[in-house]
Amino acid sequence: MDKKRAILVLADGTSFTGYSLGAAGEKAGEVVFNTSMMGYQEILTDPSYKGQMVVMTYPLIGNYGINEKDYESRSLFLEGFIVKEYSPFPSNWRSQISLDEFLKNKKTVGIQGIDTRELTRRLRDYGAQQGIISTEDFDVFSLTKKIKSAPGLVGIDLVKSVTCNNLYEWKDSDSDAGKSKRLKVVVYDCGVKYNILRKLNSAGCSVTVVPAQTQSQTILNMKPDGVVLSNGPGDPAAVPYMIENIKGLLGKKPVFGICLGHQLMALTLGLKTYKLKFGHHGGNQPVMDLHTKKVEITAQNHSFAVTAPQEGTMQKSPYGNVEITHVNLNDKSVEGLKCHSIPAFSVQYHPEASPGPHDASYLFERFIEMMKYQS
Ligand SMILES: NC(=O)CC[C@H](N)C(=O)O
């Protein structure tokens, strides 16, 4: 492998010089760290990373290559990829191409050979910040200036650049065969991860995916048993049309929100969202179910969060009481919501895992029970 020089510069002027990984070029984005010890392909193809660059804290990346089955979306949407040591010799029976080739094919820039521990500590101590990867310009002053003109995440609708253009039926070759589907689920694609669709499908649902701009009346005309609000990139407060859509569905159909879907549901219910210091990105976030006191280890990827009510775990809304059902044990942030008067609930974490622990996959069953009860 040719080792071309590359540089990563942060908005605060810190620079890291290493080698190019993937495509040559220059790209800016918010730098966030992910603590997952595996699953780089799922992370790379998660549309929620649009606008961001991911640094993997696990030090060796690329060793099992890339395969056609582990895609979480149709492409790559993140701005750049940062690793300590890239393994150029993938060794796995499922591997089809190397990570480096994959990034090159997708025209995605990356950097390898930098001290990701120092970078992560900086992000953790001072917060996530904009950065730029370049294989062309090595002048830190010039690169810092370019970062200043990069848009950032707050107030920008990134959903519109990742949602599908047209409605489609999800067909999963592995789990679809011969099963008669009983429940019809419509999934709002705000940047949906395929494993949400796979999980619904294998649990016995027929799954129709619709663009985020689809109006609620169109969904109601489809007569679904329930609606899922998917994960997705960026600032939930910058997607007002999704809030209008959710207003038209709450109380009429069972609703299940995941990550961005959870934040959008919270905004619709009158709660607020804010930006976290460096977010939660990884597969080891402890979450407590406040009813059962059981702790789940969860997969997470978010930079925004729902503001907790001033007192207790209950909040009034135009749709009746909303209860905080789950909290993060690291920072006490809101991880789950449930409406008392209408069939709707949401979680900040990822029950579909991919990558990460499967502790929370029971939530799909819970949604199915909710739809069965309503139908
Ligand atoms: N994975 C997601 O859906 C991310 C939600 C939102 N974009 C955030 O960063 O908080």
UniProtKB/TrEMBL annotation:
Annotated Carbamoyl-phosphate synthase small subunit N-terminal domain residues: 4-134
Catalytic activity field: hydrogencarbonate + L-glutamine + 2 ATP + H2O = carbamoyl phosphate + L-glutamate + 2 ADP + phosphate + 2 H(+); L-glutamine + H2O = L-glutamate + NH4(+)
Keyword Lipid biosynthesis assigned: no
Record key words, sorted: Amino-acid biosynthesis, Arginine biosynthesis, ATP-binding, Glutamine amidotransferase, Ligase, Nucleotide-binding, Pyrimidine biosynthesis
InterPro entries assigned to the protein according to its UniProt record, in alphabetical order: Anth_synth/Amidotransfase, CarbamoylP_synth_ssu, CarbamoylP_synth_ssu_N, CarbP_synth_ssu_N_sf, Class_I_gatase-like, CPSase_GATase1, GATASE
Alphabetical list of PROSITE patterns matching this protein: GATASE_TYPE_1
Location of the region described as CPSase in the Swiss-Prot/TrEMBL record: 1-179
Pathway assignment: Pyrimidine metabolism; UMP biosynthesis via de novo pathway; (S)-dihydroorotate from bicarbonate: step 1/3; Amino-acid biosynthesis; L-arginine biosynthesis; carbamoyl phosphate from bicarbonate: step 1/1
Origin species: Candidatus Brocadia sinica JPN1
Binding site for L-glutamine: 48, 232, 234, 260, 263, 301, 304
UniProt record similarity statement: Belongs to the CarA family.
Active site feature: 259, 350, 352
Any Pfam family the entry gives: GATase
Role description: Small subunit of the glutamine-dependent carbamoyl phosphate synthetase (CPSase). CPSase catalyzes the formation of carbamoyl phosphate from the ammonia moiety of glutamine, carbonate, and phosphate donated by ATP, constituting the first step of 2 biosynthetic pathways, one leading to arginine and/or urea and the other to pyrimidine nucleotides. The small subunit (glutamine amidotransferase) binds and cleaves glutamine to supply the large subunit with the substrate ammonia.
EC number of this enzyme: 6.3.5.5
Quaternary structure and interacting proteins, as annotated: Composed of two chains; the small (or glutamine) chain promotes the hydrolysis of glutamine to ammonia, which is used by the large (or ammonia) chain to synthesize carbamoyl phosphate. Tetramer of heterodimers (alpha,beta)4.
Protein name: Carbamoyl phosphate synthase small chain
Source domain of life: Bacteria
